[in-house]
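[[Per-residue structure]]
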Amino acid sequence: MTRDRLIKPFSGSILIAVFFLLNLIFLPAITSGQEVKKNLPLRKITVAPEYPRVEVVEGEDVDLNLVVRNGGRQGETIDLFFTSIPKGWKAWFKTYSFKIGGVYVESDSTKNVSIEAKPGKGVVPGRYRFPITAKTSDGRLVSSSELIITVSSEKEMKKAGGINITTSYPVLKGPTDGKFEFSLDVENKTDKDAIFNLSYDAPKDWGINFKPSYEDKYFSSLRIKKNQSKSLAVEVKPYVLAEPGLYPIKVKISSDKAQNEVVLKVDLTGTYKMDVGTADGLLSLNAYQGKIANRSFYVKNSGSATDTGIKFISFKPENWKVTFTPKKIDSLAPGELKQVEMTITPADQALVGDYSVAVNVNGQKLSKNLEFRVTVKASTAWGWIGLIIILMVLAGLVFLFIRMGRR
């Protein structure tokens, strides 16, 4: 039996083993995901303001989130519109810096859309209703909700002129798993020393704390002498599962004679997380001198922000060659996984033994490392040559024994 006939059945057995191993790893997860999808209705949408009842002072704009939920088994394009807008008001839906009329929401997912409402000069104190309707693009599913804005006159609210709040950076941008710190200067413009209470209105499950700048102690009130000012920091820790977007945080500062507030905004870009590895979990391979050996590994974006410009850098022994296909990954969406084929060619003069080849996967915000153990084996051709030499030596010895025996 030739060498090729021996290798082919062996290779086929390896392929069958790998196939069953992959089934054991991935089939339960796929089946579980399918079962969850089966428990959902075929189609279902809901829409509601995050804060359906809002009270503002006369002339103040309103900016808050609209929660759009797709509870069905298929993605939906959902159109959004106000059924009616009170006289004197302007209102629209937006995301980031532009207005929108709808949003695409994947199956069993939620997206936040901003609502912005601006009162005109003729808007007087009162209660204003903003009916909201969400409808799928085919018009078969409809969900309705309502935002109520109560406008109060300045006389009804505590006088804000006694407190002046300023901040140099009202909008901070960063990843969802980051920590944000705003700096505020609070000026007491009243004619008496006062204790000012600190409070906030923030998205659900967010962590908000008031603290001195550059210190790690927290407080909920602040004493300021008349006609003087003090600085404080507002520490913000977003909810770990918050989606990328712009989130307002209203900070209120009040005393028994005056109150004022400021709106701070956090622009979340999502989290940057990356997983790298091999399908079978092994980080080793065999190779021969001067011959190409193949190994594949995966790169998965396990964060909530798209990663871009992912490059691969190898650290290898001298005169070795390492190449990657593809050479780089231009963009990797959240939850997306891509396979990378790596070829390793040991040097022609490499000695038999174990070597280390490290691979650095370098993304936009973070990087991961893999270290492969490469076992260099002697070429089978040299094995045959060695066997022939041994046989020739043995034949020579036999010949000498026979010739010497005759004498």
The two ends are 43 Å apart (CA to CA).
